[in-house]
Specification:
Blueprint lengths: L3 H16 L14 E2 L7 E2 L6 E5 L1 H7 L14 E5 L7 E5 L7 E5 L2 E2 L18 E8 L3 H4 L6 E7 L7 E9 L3 E12 L2 E12 L8 E14 L3 E15 L2 E2 L2 E2 L4 E18 L2 E18 L8 E22 L2 E21 L5 E20 L5 E12 L3 E14 L4 E12 L3 H5 L11 E13 L5 E19 L4 E21 L2 E14 L12 E12 L2 E10 L2 E3 L8 E3 L2 E16 L2 E11 L18 E9 L1
Parallel strand pairs: 6-9
Antiparallel strand pairs: 1-2, 3-8, 4-5, 6-7, 8-9, 10-11, 10-35, 11-12, 12-13, 13-14, 14-17, 15-16, 17-18, 18-19, 19-20, 20-21, 21-22, 22-23, 23-24, 24-25, 25-26, 26-27, 27-28, 28-29, 29-30, 30-33, 31-32, 33-34, 34-35
Length: about 625
């Protein structure tokens, strides 16, 4: 039961809601933002042949997220599961695939770990991002390896047309404290955004504390009238207690992760309809696991992993006519990793050091055809020469056609993706398998989007199928990584209703059926069904509120301290978010806002990943000011 103190908090938020007054229901016709990830061209979502979702800046502000996973959990087709409380390992899986099948980019630069082939979003705050773009389905034709299941691109904020400062602070359950601040400016000479965010919390278990600090700078400068340069610098530094590991509950296991992304993009219009872009990035990551022996134990572990992902890309964009855009480019990527492990045990202690580098050289070609306002065709292919996987050819085709008379758009896509095994998967001294071959997958989808007469109801549905030949997954029966044939298929559906002028109702649902032929079972960590019903309320442009009811079915999973695969029960939970903003314009102050969120309102016991308890009822209340 929720105690009296939490009931008082709920009454305070409801009272704030009563202060507000007229109209922000999330109308179906309003949700058509500009995206760039699917085609590298700025286009509306409705003009995409691929299946695309966008988390807008307004949604990010309303949800008051701690880390990136907080804003992605309701996206159809995505499984975002956290190991316990905020700061725990958290990855993105798309359409029944693995987290290693999702390419994660920040500002268009890849950040998947060369060691693990995935990106831990549990240490990535999103306060400094303008939006998040999600493209489902194989995207290796445009982005190469890692993009078997899809791409998630975090687009940072940019400086506005005038100087602005903002700051915020929030506090809540588990002695949690969040702070953030930013400054931005813009004009003819360019624009600049600089921001920082921090988080500190005790967590829900002994040795479950988490502290995080992140800083980001984004700049754009025009060079003459035909060229411009864009740069980003992002650092993250997080330290987390690991309360659950292979020994069960642990009181001294610590994990530190630091990341530094540096990216530069130069673009020049060499002629009418011809643009050349040169870009490069370096992403350095440091991970340290320190697990001294607990009382009564004799073994300890100290592991340091350092990785660097380097990228160089040169591409040209040719638009000879409004209906045709051609991309051609070359890319070079180098992944480097060093891993030092000291495992101390009286019976079989060991010291190991691994160092590896993987190179990838590629050429890609993509054609975007828009035959009028209501149809489009996307054709692409990429040839990769990978030092581990050899030569890989990955094509993709996608098409959409709009029928204005009935307010419906139909679309379909098919593509191929690949991912080479990482050095850890092949050569790890405990679970590695040197005989692993690359993952390959063929993905296809077909869907439709419709807006009903009156434009008060929008509907979307997509059928998908992915065939993995083979999949790379850990096999607990043989205690090592293995290649296995598998598939996933399912349906994504979404509906949005504008019930009243100030009330919107939405439903999102995903059904995923997965199967591994060799094991005769489902893929681990993928629930068969998940969905969200949400209510949007805005009686005044200054006030936004959202109530979410999230459900997730059971899944096959394995706790770190268990030797056998077992069932993780499904769960349901209710979350509430609210934000009220005043335009004050007093002295230098422009705006003041109150924010609040309450999660797991029904105080349920549940786990997103087996063996890791998730927080019960918790809240976070904050205040923000703009100058």
């Amino acid at each position: 039961m929720i105690g009296r103190k939490w009931k008082r908090v709920f009454r305070v938020l409801c009272a704030v809601a009563g202060l507000s007054g007229a109209a922000w229901a999330e109308e179906p016709t309003r949700l058509d933002p500009i995206v760039v990830t699917a085609t590298r061209i700025e286009q509306k979502v409705s003009e995409q042949a691929s299946d695309v979702s966008v988390v807008t800046g307004e949604e990010i502000d309303l949800m008051a997220p701690v880390v990136a996973g907080d804003v992605l959990k309701t996206i159809p087709g995505l499984d975002v599961q956290r190991q316990g409380s905020p700061g725990g390992l958290e990855n993105i899986k798309i359409r029944g695939g693995l987290s290693t099948h999702t390419l994660v980019m920040i500002d268009g630069f890849p950040v998947n770990s060369p060691a693990l082939s995935e990106f831990d979003i549990g240490s990535l705050p999103v306060d400094g991002f303008e939006r998040v773009e999600v493209v489902r389905g194989a995207q290796s034709a445009l982005y190469g390896s890692y993009a078997i299941g899809g791409v998630v691109n975090f687009i940072p904020r940019k400086g506005g047309k005038e100087r602005e400062y903002d700051a915020g602070v929030a506090a809540g359950s588990f002695r949690s404290l969040k702070w953030r601040g930013s400054a931005q400016d813009g004009g003819k000479a360019g624009n600049l955004y600089v921001g920082g965010v921090g988080w500190k919390s005790d967590g829900i278990l002994p040795n479950d504390d988490f502290s995080l600090a992140s800083y980001m700078g984004v700049a754009e400068v025009p060079i003459g009238s035909r060229s411009r340069i864009h740069a980003i610098l992002l650092s993250t530094d997080g330290t987390k207690g690991v309360p659950v590991d292979y020994s069960g509950r642990d009181i001294n296991h610590r994990f530190t992760r630091r990341g530094l992304l540096t990216g530069v993009r130069y673009e020049i219009d060499v002629a009418k309809g011809v643009t050349v872009t040169a870009s490069g990035s370096i992403f350095d990551e440091f991970m340290h696991t320190n697990d001294p022996a607990d009382p009564g134990e004799t073994s300890s572990l100290d592991d340091v992993t350092k990785t660097r992902k380097g990228l160089l890309r040169l591409e040209g964009r040719i638009s000879p006519a409004p209906f045709s855009t051609t991309f051609v480019g070359v890319e070079y990527q180098k992944d480097r990793m060093t891993d030092s492990t000291v495992f101390t045990d009286p019976m079989f202690g060991s010291i190991s050091f691994n160092e590896s580098s993987v190179y990838d050289r590629s050429v890609f070609l993509q054609e975007e055809i828009r035959a009028g306002k209501h149809s489009g065709l996307s054709l692409g292919a990429r040839l990769d020469r990978n030092s581990l996987a050899g030569t890989e050819f990955n094509p993709k085709a996608a098409v959409f056609y709009e029928i204005p008379a009935i307010g419906t758009r139909v679309r379909a896509a098919v593509g191929r993706g690949f991912r080479p095994p990482t050095a850890s998967e092949k050569f790890d001294p405990y679970v590695g398998n040197p005989d692993l071959s690359s993952e390959k997958a063929v993905s296809c989808e077909a869907g439709a989007d419709a807006t009903l007469p009156g434009k008060k109801v929008s509907l979307a549905a997509t059928w998908f199928y992915q065939d993995f030949k083979p999949l790379i997954q850990y096999d607990p029966d043989v205690w090592k990584m293995r290649n296995m044939n598998a598939f996933s298929r399912g349906v994504e559906a979404e509906a949005l209703f504008q019930v009243l002028a100030d009330v919107g109702l939405g439903v999102k649902y995903t059904y995923s059926y997965t199967w591994i032929a060799e094991k005769q079972r489902r893929i681990l960590g993928i629930p068969r069904q998940r969905g969200t019903a949400y209510l949007l309320y805005s009686p005044d442009p200054a006030f936004h509120a959202r109530l979410d009811w999230r459900l997730e079915s059971d899944q096959l999973d394995k706790a770190p301290f268990e030797s056998n695969i077992s069932r993780r029960p499904g769960y349901a939970m209710v979350d509430f978010f609210a934000r009220y903003r005043w335009d004050i314009n007093v002295a230098a102050f422009r705006e003041f806002a109150l924010t609040g969120k309450m999660q797991n309102l029904l105080n349920r016991d549940y786990e997103e990943r087996k063996g890791y308890p998730s927080p019960k009822f918790n809240f976070l209340l904050g205040a923000e000011v703009k100058i």
